[in-house]
Design brief:
The complex is a heterodimer.
Chain A lengths: L24 E8 L10 E4 L5 E3 L5 E5 L6 E5 L6 E4 L8 E3 L9 E3 L5 E3 L7 E5 H6 L16 E5 L8 E5 L12 E4 L2 E3 L10 H6 L20 E7 L2 H4 L10 E6 L6 E16 L12 E4 L2 E4 L19 E4 L11 E3 L5 E5 L5 H5 L3 E13 L3 E13 L6 E16 L2 E16 L9 H7 L29 H7 L2 E19 L2 E20 L10 E25 L2 E26 L10 E26 L3 E12 L8 E12 H4 L7 E15 L10 E3 L1 E2 L9 E2 L8 E3 L2 E2 L7 E14 L4 E20 L8 E24 L3 E18 L6 E3 L6 E4 L6 E4 L11 E2 L13 E4 L5 E11 L2 E11 L2 E4 H8 L12 E3 L3 E5 L5 E7 L3 E3 L19 H4 E3 L2 E12 L12 E9 L3 E2 L21 E2 L6 E11 L1
Parallel strand pairs in A: 1-7, 13-16, 39-42, 47-53, 51-60
Antiparallel strand pairs in A: 1-4, 2-3, 2-5, 5-6, 8-9, 10-15, 11-12, 13-14, 15-16, 17-23, 17-61, 18-19, 20-21, 20-22, 23-24, 24-25, 25-26, 26-27, 27-28, 28-29, 29-30, 30-31, 31-32, 32-33, 33-34, 34-40, 35-38, 36-37, 40-41, 41-42, 42-43, 43-49, 44-45, 45-46, 46-48, 49-50, 50-57, 51-56, 52-55, 53-54, ...
Chain B lengths: L1 H19 L18 H27 L3 E3 L2 H7 L9 H24 L3 H22 L2 E2 L15 E2 L1 H20 L20 H17 L7 H9 L11 E4 L9 H8 L4 E3 L1 H4 L9 H4 L18 E5 L1 H14 L5 H20 L5 H13 L3 H12 L6 H9 L28 H6 L20
Antiparallel strand pairs in B: 1-5, 2-3, 4-6
Classes of the chains: A mainly beta, B mainly alpha.
Chain lengths: ~1050, ~450
């Protein structure tokens, strides 16, 4: 970590007092205490003036002093600052010690204000840039996983470019965004995820359960450009950012050049191979078919069936006949008893294992940085090429960044930065969608080989259920892919004027704009849209942010210091989503609007304008008590005019009690207590203050996205929109109380940062469901109350420290509990997922799973249906799971021995249920490995039920003794199909706990003496790995998955999601 | 220089503070959602939506429960074996109340406000169609206090089915007839925007009278006097196939019939049930229009082509009502019943095949009629074929008469249908139980509980 160190608080050199002389010149050399090498670029400042200089390449400086009794302040990144009395000396050589205690870490807080972490009264956590690069994640957000206490990251799958959802201190909003603000160099950037849903209105709700996995736009950040990263968690930290940081903020500072340094050229290369890390277990014993008259019957496309299930006979009981069929290259498959049967036994296939390939991920990064006396510059080019584990999928990203800063004239600095990114790829169908890769792949009967061709000569499909029922996964990857192409520019210019030593003005104007052009394809004969469709969608997003800040830093008296900032913020966001749906393609593979026989156009808009005025005052009392008061007032366009102005305050207190009590103990070396209280407001989503009419799309859940899509039948048509607006809305407020301590032991070798927080969101804005018979389906209200509380702990320890060998550990622990205290009058819950299984329910944790379950008597025993011998289903649904983990733990271990460094991160998640809808369906279909017990005779535990005349069921005391064949293969009821298509929700909820090796790197820094005659200044080679192992009881794919990606508040949802990956490879870093 | 810079910053400050007081104007209005639209832009949506629900989900429920269809995958398979969960009916309910009837209610209100009785009348007929279908599926349903969300009523109360049948719906239809008969409609009259009758008000009046007939007749199981009342209403009803109250869908990919679209989007979820496939006589030329091959449902049949009609009420149904009324009235007239039955069957053959009844089929029917001890069974068996895919008719008939004489499917017992018999109702949707708990009449889903006209 390279921190700028500004203050030093206990290192005053005792020098003999002398009378000083004015107008004196002093010079000297600054060296590092670690290795006695000269330090270039050290700031040398005459205390109390703006007079100063910077050391040259040899570490030398020369200053002409202007004041009486001058003192010089030496400061440099990563080193403890020193203040030295000149005392008339003309030569002063300084040795600077690296700052191991890191007490005066400079952190970037809200609105780009730099603060000394020591003075903060709230929790804030930095992430090492090196750690981010080391994680080798394509998605910058995924790279934060396990590295920050209080942060939970969930990637939506292993598809190239897949989104990752990030939450800081849990979910605070019911339907609004719960994603933190991403800020780069003071400019908030867009981190939206836009799904190309089946239809435009699903685009709006962004809840596509099918479609492809899209990216969240933070994926455009090149991790190699990051210098440092700070996570702001509570309102006391984020109040100046206002409502956009209501869910915390991830504040990124990018690399800059340093003044007075030679150009430094770096090249980094990484290459990994990616493999699938986990698949559900499937059976390969029983053939496609169904039980007919008590006998499993082979029913397949080759004998004229479209049967979905694999409840047929044993595959090894089937034989090939000497009769050709287009469905099987080895010939017609018949029962052994069939007269046509040969002695050739039918083959069984594990279609899922055979389908995946090895993907790869290659990154190249070149950067040039350096500076002259008045200018510094940084330039980088980054390129990422990722190819997926599913055939025909990829993601790539090219990034150019240039940042330069010049002191135009004295104390007036102008900075410019521009970052151009081009990213995109080829994405594959996912989820609840008959064209979904996993849906067709996992449901395929083991008696059918998907890979033996997916297309017949006449253009129809070769798939296990015949033609276009479920797409053959090979058809889907080759014919139904989506391409996206993002062109994005993030840039800013900043003017900063140090008018007086204690007065600074800064103005910053930033823009983040991109266009995302997508072409979504369903080829002719694709099962979800047999006529074929092409959706041409363009997302144009533009964020403009303007900040003006005035900062005053003044020492009022000997031991009271003031730090005061006032500012103004303007922010506007405009998003235009235009889509053209073309249906009924003229020719297979012709994906252009010219190909479509019916074309519908939809223009979608989201926009928001925001003004904010803010101020913050920090008082430093005797360098041990730090009091901060902050406040911000926002004016938001998304609230009704009468309520669109709202103010929220925050206060915090930090107390360095080791200072107060002069504790200077090598065992307990530093201690600070923190307490803060703060509020942050949040506005409404776009356009929920009014109701309008929507262009009609008439269809039902079974035909979506198809149906009558107006204009149609020569007419245009509208219907009242489903959402009833509310012109009385007001801002929602989150109030957070936080206490904590920063403690250091053994001279900083062990550091512990503990925080307890309790945050309650009141008046949360949500669109509650209302009875459809009221005419509308939802209305916007201010009503919910959500509480999140928990413990965050970050521990760093240097366990072994010797000349040659070092062992360091870092632990990040997060334990968050949450509860929905109140929803809305008369509304016990709202549904947040596409299938109605996940809910926000009053009195329950956020996002509990709600669904079907077994009927139990008051002693918890299952009630058995006397007619079937199977447990009854409870006619009333109930809570069956909780997706919130008990705790998260990131455990990093770093070993260094000479130039060798081994570092790995263990990522542990305890608890947190995942809805494994995939399993429910696979068992119903008889392809899940669990169904291998289909022929077993079992007696279900429980008591017999009795059906009353009125249809209700009453439990008796009589134990069940009815023996049944579990899979109903004798003609009885099939347990796996008895409870419907997706099975009982209770049976599909699984514990999503895991232990995984999130990342590992083994690197070697070549000794510098080896490089003396080479052009290189440094060479680093390494082995890198990601997700190398995973221990979990979850029976599906990697439980770190989420169907609806990062765009929604849905958590822990697995319904034929695309699987995750593990990777390993090499890295090379060269410095010239 | 320093002063100059300070001035620049002061200017920026002044500028940025001054824009804070700006109004946001219509920034928060979604330009793709107009705040108001004309009746002519609402009517096609309301009509299409109601046809979509009746001809899609309702036809599927009716057909699966009366063994016209067989579910072989997904929830259709569950529904076929009488496993119908509350969540399964959310869609039907929402699409009827929100997508269809709320739009239609807007046309009714606008018709009144804008002095356009012709629009109002058409909307009232459509409303009566929708509420009638809802009550036949669910029993007591919200109507009197429905569609008041924009006035702050989020908990609509339920209207008793008896009240709906005996008073509310007839009154609504009488009001519709009066509106449609108005000489003038200064606020405009439906024309090409009416995708059902193309603005023909006389046909709308006939549709209204036919619905009155249906709702009167449907009360016969409770009150046999209803049959005589029904017979008296016949002259005003639809009097030929050409006058059928139906919506014909289009041929483009974005204007399909709902059954067709189901065969496309949910291929492999349903087949024709063996019972239905085997019910046809050899001489029945309608079979290839309904069933393909052995018992395939996914083909371009009469009701499963992209531009197929969705029938809301047909001349064929009117004739069957006539036939059954003669048969069931206090003083049965069997000969008149047979005449009306013959006319019904003739109309059905003409509608489906374009050709009259084959002589052999007629002979078979005559013989069956003569031999039958319960002539009602012959009649309903004919109607079971002739009114296939016409909304909930087959299921209504089964519940009223017990015909056709179906055998229950295996595995039909479950927690919601404990005795395994053919369900008598759909469960109230889950959203009502959870969002309107104070008003929903029952929270225990029991598919065997009968409602008023079925008792």
């Amino acid at each position: 970590m390279r921190n700028i160190l500004l203050f030093n608080f206990c290192l005053l050199l005792s020098l003999t007092t002398h009378w000083s002389y004015a107008q004196q010149t002093v010079s000297g050399r600054v060296t590092s205490a670690d290795d006695q090498t000269p330090l270039p670029g050290v700031n040398v400042l005459e205390e109390g003036t703006t007079n100063g200089t910077i050391t040259d390449l040899n570490g030398d400086y020369r200053v002409t002093l202007t004041s009486d009794n001058p003192r010089l302040v030496f400061s440099f990144i990563g080193f403890a600052q020193q203040t030295v009395e000149v005392n008339g000396q003309s030569s002063l050589d300084i040795t600077m010690a690296s700052d191991t205690r890191q007490l005066s870490e400079i952190v970037v807080t809200a609105a780009g204000i730099e603060a000394n972490k020591r003075e903060l009264g709230y929790s804030i956590q930095n992430v090492d840039a090196e750690e981010i690069v080391q994680s080798r994640e394509t998605n910058f957000v995924s790279a934060l996983s396990g590295k920050v206490a209080g942060v939970q990251v969930t990637s939506s799958g292993g598809t190239p470019g897949a989104a990752a959802q990030i939450r800081i201190r849990g979910n605070k909003s019911v339907q609004g965004s719960n994603a933190p603000l991403f800020v780069i160099d003071g400019i908030p950037i867009d981190n939206s995820t836009y799904n190309t849903a089946d239809s435009p209105e699903d685009d709006v709700s962004n809840l596509g359960s099918g479609g492809v996995t899209n990216s969240n736009r933070a994926i455009d950040i090149n991790p190699e450009d990051v210098e440092s990263l700070t996570v702001l968690k509570g309102p006391a930290a984020t109040v100046l950012y206002g409502i956009r940081a209501a869910n915390g903020a991830v504040v990124i500072t990018t690399k800059k050049g340093q003044r007075n340094t030679k150009p430094k050229i770096s090249y980094d290369f990484g290459y990994t191979v990616d493999q699938i890390n986990k698949l559900p277990d499937l059976q390969t014993t029983y053939a496609q078919g169904a039980v007919v008259d008590g006998v499993p019957d082979f029913q397949a496309a080759l004998n004229g069936f479209t049967t979905s299930t694999s409840w047929g006979p044993r595959i090894d009981g089937l034989r090939y006949a000497d009769e050709a069929t287009p469905w099987d290259p080895y010939g017609l498959v018949v029962p052994a008893s069939d007269p046509r049967a040969t002695s050739r036994v039918a083959r069984a296939y594990n279609n899922a294992e055979d389908f995946f390939q090895t993907g790869s991920n290659a990154t190249h990064n070149v950067s040039v940085s350096g500076g002259t006396a008045a200018t510094n510059y940084f330039f980088s080019i980054g390129r990422l090429d990722q190819s997926g584990i599913m055939p025909n999928s990829f993601f790539d990203r090219t990034s150019f960044r240039a940042t330069t800063s010049t002191e135009v004239f004295k104390n007036f600095n102008v900075s410019f930065s521009a970052n151009y990114i081009n990213s995109g790829g080829k994405r594959l169908q996912n989820g609840s969608n008959t064209s979904g890769v996993m849906l067709g792949l996992l449901r395929t009967a083991p008696s059918f080989d998907n890979s033996a061709g997916y297309l017949f000569e006449d253009g129809t499909q070769r798939a296990y259920r015949g033609g276009s029922v479920y797409d053959n996964p090979y058809f889907t990857v080759n014919k139904n892919y989506t391409t996206d192409d993002v062109n994005r520019i993030i840039g800013y210019s900043q003017l900063s004027y140090e008018a007086l030593p204690w007065l600074n003005f800064t103005y910053r104007l930033g823009v983040d704009t991109y266009s995302d052009e997508r072409l979504f394809r369903n080829d002719v004969n694709s099962s979800s849209v047999q006529a074929g469709q092409a959706i041409n969608q363009t997302i144009n997003s533009k964020d403009i942010n303007s900040d003006f800040l005035m900062t005053i830093k003044k020492e009022v008296s000997g031991n009271i210091g003031l730090n005061f900032t006032v500012g103004h913020n303007y922010y506007s966001k405009d998003v235009a989503i235009n889509r053209i749906d073309g249906q009924g393609l003229a020719s297979p593979g012709f994906f252009n609007m010219a190909s479509a026989t019916a074309v519908n156009v939809a223009e979608g808009v989201t926009r928001r304008k925001l003004y904010g005025l803010f101020g913050t005052l920090t008082v430093n009392i005797a360098d041990q008590l730090f009091v901060n008061l902050s406040g911000r007032n926002d004016w938001s366009s998304t609230l009704p005019e009468a309520n669109n102005s709202f103010f929220y305050p925050a206060a915090s207190l930090g107390w360095d009690f080791t200072q107060t009590f002069a504790i200077d103990n090598p065992i307990f070396s530093y201690g600070k207590l923190r307490a803060s209280w703060g509020q942050v407001g949040n506005d409404a989503p776009f356009a929920v203050t009014n109701s309008g009419f929507a262009q009609s799309r008439v269809r039902d859940g079974w035909t979506t996205p198809q149906g009558v899509i107006f204009p149609a039948l020569g007419l245009n048509a509208f219907n009242p929109d489903g959402l009833l607006g509310n012109d009385q809305l007001k801002a929602e407020t989150t109030t957070t109380m936080e206490v904590g301590a920063d403690l250091q032991f053994f001279n900083g070798r062990i550091g512990l940062d503990l925080t307890y927080f309790d945050a309650t969101t009141t008046d949360a804005i949500l669109n509650i469901d209302i009875p459809s018979a009221s005419g509308w389906q939802q209305r916007a209200v201010n009503s919910a109350e959500l509480r999140n509380y928990g413990i965050e702990a970050a521990l760093t320890a240097n366990i072994i420290s010797s000349e040659a060998f070092n062992y360091d550990v870092t632990l990040n622990f997060t334990r968050i509990r949450n509860k929905v205290e109140k929803l809305a009058e008369g509304i016990p819950f709202i549904t947040i997922d596409p299938f109605g299984t996940q809910r926000i329910a009053e009195g329950e944790p956020f996002g509990i799973f709600y669904g079907t379950r077994f009927l139990r008597d008051d002693q918890g025993r299952k009630v058995i249906d006397p007619a079937k011998g199977l447990p009854f289903e409870d006619p009333n649904e109930g809570i069956v799971g909780d997706p919130n983990p008990d705790f998260l733990l990131g455990f990093r271990n770093t070993f260094t021995w000479k130039g060798v460094k081994l570092s790995f991160l263990l990522d542990i998640r305890q608890g947190g249920d995942v809805y494994n809808g995939t399993k429910g369906v696979l068992n119903n279909f008889g392809v899940g490995a669990e169904t291998l017990d289909r022929n077993e005779r079992v007696v279900f535990d429980g008591v017999l039920g009795q059906v009353q005349d009125d249809g209700t069921i009453v439990a008796t005391e009589q134990a069940n003794t009815i023996e049944v064949v579990k899979g109903g293969t004798d003609g009885g009821t099939n347990y796996y199909q008895n409870y419907g298509f997706v099975n009982l929700t209770e049976l599909t909820i699984e514990d999503g706990s895991w232990v995984r090796l999130r990342d590992l790197s083994l690197s070697y820094e070549l000794p510098s003496q080896w490089l003396e005659s080479s052009p290189f200044r440094g060479v680093n080679v390494g082995f890198i790995a990601r997700n190398l192992f995973l221990f979990t009881d979850y029976t599906g794919i990697d439980p770190e998955t989420n169907l609806t990606g990062a765009s929604s508040n849905v958590i822990g949802y697995d319904y034929f999601n695309n699987p995750n990956t593990k990777s390993y490879g090499v890295s090379v870093g060269l410095t010239f | 220089m320093k002063r100059y810079i300070i001035k620049v910053f002061l200017l920026i400050t002044a500028l940025s503070v001054s824009i804070s007081s700006c109004e946001f104007g219509d920034t928060n209005v979604d330009p793709s959602l107009p705040q108001d639209v004309a009746m002519s832009a609402l009517l096609p949506s309301g009509e299409t939506a109601i046809a979509w629900v009746v001809g899609g989900e309702m036809v599927r429920f009716s057909g699966l429960l009366t063994q016209q269809f067989r579910g072989i995958n997904a929830q259709q398979q569950d529904n076929w074996r009488y496993l119908i969960r509350e969540a399964d009916t959310n869609g039907t309910w929402q699409r009827m109340y929100h997508n269809s009837l709320n739009t239609i209610n807007f046309v009714m209100m606008k018709g009144e406000e804008q002095n356009a009785p012709h629009y109002q009348g058409v909307a009232e007929v459509l409303m009566a169609t929708g509420i009638g279908n809802l009550t036949d599926a669910f029993g007591n349903v919200p109507y009197s206090t429905a569609f008041e969300g924009n006035e702050g009523n989020f908990n609509p109360t339920y209207d008793e089915q008896q009240e709906l049948y005996s008073t509310t719906l007839p009154q609504l239809l009488d009001a519709a007839i009066a509106s449609l008969s108005a000489d003038d409609s200064p606020g405009g009259s439906p024309g090409a925007d009416d995708v059902i009758y193309g603005g023909d008000l006389d046909l709308w009046v006939k549709a209204a009278n036919s619905l009155k007939l249906r709702y009167t007749f449907q009360q016969g199981k409770r009150n046999p006097a209803a049959y005589d009342a029904a017979l008296a209403m016949l002259p005003e009803a639809i009097s030929s196939n050409q006058e059928d109250y139906e919506m014909i869908f289009g041929s483009s990919a974005n204007e399909p019939n709902p059954q067709y679209q189901f065969t496309q989007s949910r291929s492999g979820n349903m087949r024709m049930d063996d019972y239905f496939a085997n019910v046809f006589s050899e001489n029945d030329t309608r079979k290839p229009f309904f069933v393909d091959g052995e018992n395939d449902f996914e083909f371009s049949g009469y009701y499963t082509s992209i531009n197929s009609p969705v029938v809301l009420m047909s001349y064929v149904e009117v004739k069957f009502i006539e036939a059954e009324s003669y048969l069931q009235k206090a003083a049965p007239d069997v000969a008149a019943a047979k005449t009306a039955l013959d006319e019904a069957v003739t109309a059905s053959f003409l509608k489906i095949t374009g050709a009259p009844v084959p002589a052999a089929y007629q002979a078979e029917l005559d013989a069956n009629w003569a031999a039958a001890s319960d002539k009602l069974e012959v009649l309903i068996n004919e109607k079971y074929i002739a009114c296939y895919s016409q909304g909930l008719l087959s299921w209504n008939d089964y519940r009223r008469t017990g015909y056709p004489d179906l055998t229950v499917v295996p595995d039909g017992t479950n927690s919601f249908n404990a005795n395994g018999e053919i369900p008598r109702r759909l469960p109230y949707p889950q959203e009502e139980r959870l969002l309107n708990p104070t008003n929903i009449p029952t929270t225990t889903p029991n598919l065997q509980s009968r409602f008023w006209w079925d008792e």
